[in-house]
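Recall the central idea of this unit: under ordinary conditions, the amino acid sequence of a chain determines the structure it adopts. In this exercise we apply that idea directly, starting from the sequence alone.
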Amino acid sequence: MTADSGPTPPAYRFGTFLGVYTPSVLTILGLIMYLRFGWVVGNLGLPMTLFVVLLASSITFITALSASAVATNMRVGVGGEYFMVSRSLGLELGGAIGIPLFLCRTLSITFYSFGLAEAVLVVWPQSWGVPSPALEQMLAAAIIVLITLVSGKSAVLALRLQIPIMLAVGLSIVALAVGAFSEGTRAPEIAMTLRTAPEGFWYIFAVFFPAVTGFTAGIGMSGDLKDSRRSIPRGTIAAVITGLVVYLTVPVVLAVSGKITPEELAVPGVIWTSVAVLGAWLVFPGLWGAILSSAFGSVLGGPRVLQALAADGLAPSFLSRVSKTGQPTIATWISGALALAAVALGELNAVAQFVTILFLTLYVVINLASCLESLVGDPSYRPTIRVPWQASLLGSIGAVVVMFLINPIACLAAIVLEGLLYAALRRRSLKKQWGDVRAGLWMALARFALLKLRCHEGDPRNWRPQILLFAGDPGKRANLVRLASWFNQDRGIVTVCKLLVGDMEDAPDLLTVRRDMDRELDEAGVVAFPEAHVVPQFEDGVIAVTQANGIAGFHSNTIMFGWSRRRERLESQLRILRAVSRAGKNTIITHLNWAHEPGMQTRIDIWWGGLQDNGDLMLMLAYLLRMNPEWHKARIFVRSVARDEEERERQLESLGRLLPETRIGAESEVIVKPEGKGVRQVMQEVSRDASIVFLGLKEPEEGAESEYADRIAELAEGFPTAIFVRSAGEFAGRLV
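Accordingly, the structure predicted from this sequence is:
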């Protein structure tokens, strides 16, 4: 089973009303509406209560729009929010959100079961004595077993049971409205009093906010919907609007009712029974039903997240199995067992805040997914509901703010948990068969950067070697690629190019060649971009590829060759040097024979031949080399050979003025050539113990390549590692 194909589809699929709207709206109109709305009005007054409702609902409404936008761009499979995040932002981030989401929904079963048990025990006859905590735990456990059995048997049965629950909730709201006006009205309280909430406005806001967070219950049923693209946006937005209308109506009704005073409203509890027609007879069925519905939403949604995680390889594969009726039975039993085990924890209020914050991190990521999809503008992103990226970003920021308001410590813990999960999944190098927004994001950022970089093209302050390395098989020449990476400190671009001489018709598949090169580079532990080209002959191919390499204002400025023992290849490199110099490309020819292991380098010698442009480039390359951790202890020496003492003094004076201005920290030495010794012999004797030696190259005249190749070959043999450098004209990265 592949990640794209997903789990086996259910036997029965739901429409918008039963599959999305009903579970969402019943989770919104839940426990806090009955137990805390009066408390909010009694402490804040009517205007600030309405402000709290609008502020909290605006965050959820934006998130609902963002979720709807993402949902209309894809056929959302099993897993709801996890599916959308993983297909938009990648499997790793999806898993980092999906695993806590499963745990949240599972623990929510326990929370709602405890809440229902507590609400049922409110009507416990006093003559039977005070209910014990053990009794409450037993009742909660029984509720978990019941709803798990019903949900595991059939999602159809679980969702259809919510229809009478919705009627009971609606009836309790009507009873509240009718009862509120039965004994006249009063002027609503305007001022914020904080009678029973001295902690202040944001504390009350944090207590109320979970009341508006239930809209994702319907999204969790995505894999069971007939048409997720149509049902998720319609059902979710309708549920959020319904919740907003009810939440704007209920505080007005409570604030103007003549049946209850502001002081009584400020006392936490089921104050609805004092206001509604028939009191507890109509209120408690709605209260119990709302809590039960929320529990059903969790026991239906949690296993489906686990099912999707298993289908994507983030959980054992057997958890994605479904029954004949299409239910993830095994995942449901496991969710129920975990919820049942959580009953033993007893007091779960502290964990409840953590669960709420984990849900909020989900809202952050949903908004972020919509924001990035809109910003990147991939051609594949064609939602039927479009949300401005600024609105989604605002929703994401709002969710983060609320997380900190509820509990800063729990917020930090949730972020750390999901960060660790993301890092762990990244290390697993998860493979997937779908694209995500990250590729488009990097493409958009790369284009933006290239456009900005074009304005700074040729700026010597920002010059660094962008190297096009003709290395053949990078696996066999890993040290050469590593040297190129050292030259730009792993901050520039190293492109490793393999030329296949021949005809395109007989050439191997270039995509396969590049993949093999990429694998070899990874195994060698070096970062570079592989390229493979078919060329009719080597020299013309190198020149053509060199001119074409790069994009926009980001072109290779230096080509690099390894040393060839074939003299004709060295002669060919010299002819190429002459051609690419006219195109403004520097050339580096390397003769590698490390005298020390990496980290043991002690000395870098630069032989200054009087050609300023070559000297500047050699100094810059030596400096960049020393900036790497493996080379930071190496000393740089600029050396030269003089014919006599007078010339030596002139060269020392010249280098003494130049080197301090370069701020490279190089030392200088000018050696007077002894009688009877050639310059080459002096250089080899002085630098035989150097870790690496830089030498300048000239452009050989046409036809003189063979003679010049002999000279540099003799020179290279006397050094451990020799780097021959040719700067194409005035050095672009001026040192002073």
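The domain at 461-561 is CATH 3.40.50 (Rossmann fold).
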